Amino acid sequence: MQRIRSSLQSIGLNRDNKVQQLAIGSVAGFATGYLAMKVGKKVAFLVGGSIILFQVAQIRGLTKSNWEDARNKAKSVTDSLQSHSVALIFGISGGCRMDELVRMTPNDVEDLESKLLISIPDSKTNKPRSFVVNQMYLNLYRKYVLLRPENMNSERFSLNIKADRVVDKW
Fold first, then answer.
1. 26 located within any domain
2. Which of 10, 34, 98, 140 lies in the 20 to 30 Å Cα band around 124?
């Protein structure tokens, strides 16, 4: 740092001269903007060109895209996020602790058509409590319930869904 200061002072630049600071800052800002503009244009040209080339190659049959496989993978990812989304909604709406969410059973959730009534029978304070989840999240909850197999032996409400199979632990 001392070396830089002495170099700047040797060419006549110092910290006290505001005009010099303004001039150097303006030149440096202009140079940075100009360089970013030139590099940005080239990057945009390369990305856009590669997308167009990929589309042309796909139309000509040079590449193959397995869209069905991509859809299946996207569906399995979406399904696996359902359990986490429902747990997040319940946790935030009811101020639930992690252990309360883990101990929750399907009998603790009551679908009242326009809202959900969730009961927490065993809390940290040893006092049962309940809360309501509003209509906005009903469809997400109902989709999650449909993913639960009929013959599931577990009494846990929260199940982990991985690659179209249900795992009975988080």
1. yes
2. 140
Q: Which residue range forms the structural domain that includes residue 119?
A: 68-167
Domain co-membership, 24 together with 85: no
**For residue range 30-47, what is the model confidence (pLDDT) as tens digits?**
989 888 888 888 999 999
Confidence of residue 117 (pLDDT cuts 50, 70, 90): very high
Helix 67-94 to helix 138-147 angle (10° resolution) is: 120
Q: How many CB atoms lie within 10 A of CB 30?
A: 10
In terms of C-beta density within 10 A (0-12 exposed, 13-18 middle, 19 or more buried), how is residue 163 classed? exposed
Alpha helices in the chain (DSSP H): 2-10, 18-59, 67-94, 98-103, 138-147
Helix, strand, or coil (residue 162)? strand
Task: Say how far apart CA 59 and CA 43 lie, in whole Å.
Answer: 25
One-letter identity of residue 163: A
> Does 117 reside within a domain?
yes
Residues contacting residue 85 through CB under 8 Å, at least 6 positions apart: 140, 144
In a domain, 60, yes or no: no
